[in-house]
Amino acid sequence: MSYNLLKGKRGIIFGALNEDSIAWEVAKKAHDEGARFVLTNAPIALRFGKIEDLGKLCDAEIIPADVTSIEDLEHLLIKSQEILGGKLDFILHSVGMSKNVVKKRDYTDLNYKDFIQAMDISAISLHKLLQSAKKLDAINEYGSVLTLSYIGAQRVFTTYGDMTQAKAMLESIVRSFGLHYGLDKKVRINSISQSPTKTTAGKGIKGFDSFFHFAGKMSPLGNATAADCADYCITLFSDLSRKVTMQNLYHDGGFSSTGISYEVLKHYRPDCECIKHDLRLE
Prior knowledge:
Layout: E1 10-14, H1 22-32, E2 36-40, H2 43-48, H3 51-58, H4 70-84, E3 88-93, H5 99-102, H6 112-136, E4 139-149, H7 163-185, E5 188-194, H8 208-218, H9 226-237, E6 248-251, H10 262-268, H11 273-276
Parallel strand pairs: 1-2, 1-3, 3-4, 4-5, 5-6
Helix pairs in contact: 1-3, 1-9, 4-6, 6-7
C-alpha cells in the first residue's frame, strides 16, 4: 500500500547491487511512495550487479560514482539535480566494504592498506558526500541523509573485523556533520543500526549464519529484514521525521536492548528452572 509519503521528493540512492540489497528494497519503496531518484554504485559494481533492472523498474537513471572520489561525488550531485529538476530531498548512503573481512583475515593480523581503504569506503565516504553536498548547496531544507550501520560499532563481534572501526567512525560522522549541516542548512543526518541482514556483503562475513541465528533468538520481534529496513528509511526520508537528526537509530527487533532472551536460555540451559516454569513456553 502506498501513502505518497515521498510524492514530489527527489533523491539519490547509493549501493543497490541486486535483489538482496537493502538499497534495492529502499529504491522500490521510494518509487512506490512517489519519489524520483537517481541510482548510483561503483563502476565495478555496475558490471557485476543488476542495477539496470532496478533502474527500469523505478524509471531511474544510473550514474556511476566512486564514493572515495570527490570529483565523482560532485559530478553525481550536479548531474542528479539536472536530471531530477532541482535540489535533493533525500540520500541513502548504503556503502561498505572491507577486503580484510572478505579475505577473512583475523582482526589481530590486518593488512593496513586494506584497513585504510575500508575506512575510506565505508565511513569517510559519507563525510566526502556531505561536504560536497553542503558546498554545492545540493540538499533542500529538512532534507534527509541516511546511512546504514550495525551494532558492531559498539560491541565486539569476533569476525566483523575492521568494519567495527569503520561503522564507529560512520556513526561519529553522522553526529558531527549533523550538527553543522543542521545549523547551516537544516539538513538532517541519521544512521540506522540494522539487524544482521542476508545481503551479498553480509553473507560474506565469516560466521554470518551464526550472527543471524543468534540475533533472531535474542530479538523479541526477530530480525528486521531488508524490506522492513526500507519501510523505516521511507519514514525517515518523509516529512514525518523533520526534527530527527544526529541519531543512530536501532532497527533490530529489540536486540540492542536485550540482555538475554527466553529463546537463548532454552537453547543453552533447557534445564533452567526459569524455563521450566515459564508458562509461555509450554
